[in-house]
Design a protein that fits this description.
The complex is a heterodimer of chains A (about 210) and B (about 100). Chain A is mostly beta strands and about 210 residues long. Chain A contains two helices and 13 strands. In chain A, strands 1, 2, 3, 4, 5, 6, 7, 8, 9, 10, 11, 12 and 13 form a 13-stranded parallel β-sheet that branches. Chain A is elongated and about 70 Å long. Chain B has no helices and 13 strands. In chain B, strands 1, 2, 3, 4, 5, 6, 7, 8, 9, 10, 11, 12 and 13 form a 13-stranded parallel β-sheet that branches. Chain B is globular and about 30 Å long. Classes of the chains: A mainly beta (about 210), B mainly beta (about 100). At the A-B interface, strand 1 and strand 2 of A face strand 1 and strand 2 of B. Strand 2 of chain A pairs antiparallel with strand 2 of chain B, so a sheet runs across the interface.
């Protein structure tokens, strides 16, 4: 049988009505009505019609999509793509000639723009039931921040290094310099502070990482 | 040559209707209706009623199968359900439980 490594193809004359979920790339030449939840890429070919709520890592639309698309990596609407519905992703590419009718949500506009790198793919275990709902973490908007200070606040490339892990319980004890521009790294703690704080036993620990 | 492949980690809960060959390597629940051939690979789990022209089963099927041409149960397959087809072939090593009706 044809060994299409790790890719699912829905042929041109196939109609799937229902829920599709999985951990591999899906290319649609036919029609899907319902919902799609993948931890990898969805490609809607030019002949493809998708009438579904889509939750994927990335979506490339060259056909017709009626429904909302939520992607954790990017959404691309190519020149032959037609979309009616909302799109939500940190990166969006809409080609000239595409037709889009809906709301565009790219998350918090003040956060540093995500860098253009390939995100790590989740490990696949064959034959293990792994619904994409468990792997896929829905995007949530960050809490509102105070208005930006009207100074040049573009951080230098050095400052976009991963943010130091912070512990919520001890946040009050660190002097936060409010004059620092938003988005820059946390001020380094003095050795005395580090020694004092590491002696405490913290009940709760929250690690904040840069949003992928 | 099959054009449509439902991959290993895909779970489809609903209906699949088509006019071409279909290869299932993942999980399908619901119903499958094709005008051509259906190939159910060893890794597949199909809990659906099947209505196609030909069926070639190497995986697990729970549901009734209706074929207009031939049904073939290959080695290591497990089928629970009724089969209705004019031609049936059950290979050595296949597991099957259900009725067989060849008078279409």
């Amino acid at each position: 049988m044809a060994e299409l490594a790790q890719e699912t193809v829905v042929g041109e004359t196939i109609i799937i009505t229902g829920d599709v979920q999985g951990d591999e790339n899906l290319t649609v030449y036919g029609r899907i009505d319902g919902t799609i939840a993948l931890s990898k890429h969805l490609t809607v070919a030019e002949s493809g019609i998708v009438k579904a709520e889509v939750q994927v890592q990335a979506a490339i639309v060259s056909g017709i999509v009626v429904g909302n698309i939520t992607a954790t990596d990017y959404i691309e609407i190519t020149v032959t793509g037609r979309l009616v519905g909302d799109i939500k992703a940190p990166r969006i590419i809409i080609a000239r000639g595409a037709r889009v009718n809906g709301m565009v949500d790219m998350g918090d506009l003040e956060a540093p723009r995500p860098t253009v790198t390939k995100t790590a793919r989740p490990q696949l275990t064959p034959n293990a039931p792994s619904p994409a709902a468990a792997v896929f973490k829905p995007m949530s908007l960050p809490t509102p921040r105070p208005p930006p200070i009207p100074v040049s606040r573009m951080p230098t490339p050095v400052n976009t290094a991963p943010i130091m892990p912070i512990h919520t319980e001890i946040e009050d004890e660190i002097d936060i310099d409010d004059s620092l521009p938003i988005g820059s790294a946390m001020p380094a703690m003095s050795p005395e502070t580090v020694a004092r704080l590491s002696a405490k036993r913290l009940k709760k620990k929250v690690v904040v990482r840069k949003r992928p | 040559m099959a054009n449509t492949v439902i991959g290993n980690s895909i779970v489809i809960d609903g209906e699949i209707i088509g006019e071409e060959d279909l290869v299932i390597q993942g999980t399908v629940k619901g119903r499958v209706a094709l005008k051509e051939s259906l190939f159910i690979e060893p890794t597949a789990v199909v809990e659906a009623d099947v209505d196609t022209q030909n069926v070639e089963i190497s995986g697990q099927v729970t549901g009734n199968i209706v074929a207009s041409n031939m049904v073939e149960l290959k080695t290591q397959c497990r089928v629970v359900g009724d089969i209705k087809a004019p031609r049936i072939r059950i290979g050595d090593g296949a597991s099957f439980k259900g009725n067989v009706d060849m008078d279409v």
